[in-house]
Amino acid sequence: MLYEMSILCAFPVYDLTLLIALAWLAKVCTATNDHRIQPGNPLMKKYRCMVCSHVYDPAEGDPDSGIAPGTAFENLPETWSCPDCGATKADFEPMD
Ligand SMILES: [Zn+2]
Predict the structure, then answer these.
(1) Residue 47 in contact with residue 94, Cβ under 8 Å?
(2) What is the dihedral of CA 16, 20, 22, 27, to 10 degrees?
(3) Is the pLDDT of residue 55 over 80?
(4) Cα 35 to ligand 1 centroid, rounded to whole Å
């Protein structure tokens, strides 16, 4: 009897948890869609030069090298090099 009671009581709690989880997921998805061009987007990740710590910010690009703002690091030409020290793309690491 006690076992049946605990099952009956557990279900509403489970449903509520599920609802909260779904609501949270919906909120996260909406927030992600609203911030498509933000740094959280993997295509617009910042990269740091391991040689001189120069940071390549896709939102700013590299106007001095003819790189337009909004250019993802992955889309930089292979001939692109660090504007500060001349290191190659291979010397850059993604930032968190
Ligand atoms: Zn550098």
Answers:
(1) yes
(2) 160
(3) yes
(4) 29
